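Subject: Sanity check before I submit

Could someone independently write out the structure tokens for this chain? I want to compare against mine line by line before I put it in a report. The sequence has 149 residues.
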Amino acid sequence: MPLRTVSGSIVPLAAAALLAVTLAACTSSTSLITKRTQGYEISESAMAQIRPGQSQQLVTLVLGSPQSTNTFGDQSAFYYVETKVRQTAFGMTMIDSRTVLVVYFDKNKKVVDKAVYGLQDGKTIAIESRRTPSFGEDRSFIDQILQSF
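---
Independent answer below. Compare away.
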């Protein structure tokens, strides 16, 4: 009477179980789209603390360092930008919302006003890709080296 081996029937089951665990690990822990916030997270409580007449130092203490500043004449402004994006596993990024908090200061570095702007308040600017031609020939770096000999 021939002996039946148990290992012959376990190998396909073990391979199927290993494949199932591998696929489950890939799909459950990794999402195809991730949501995240870029820049400064603007909280309602922090915005409520900023009032006209406060010093620039107090604004920095409450909101942190601004991402950008602007000085025009006697007035200056701090900009805090929050962008909520979705990014696919393949690297494509889509902007869901953008909020810009601007705090305006007078010449004495006291808060004059604050404003909140959204994505709908912005304007799309087309970047020009043409080059301004130079005088004479438009030579490459290698052409310039070869002509110097």
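---
OP: Matches mine. For the report I'm noting this point. The radius of gyration is 30 Å.
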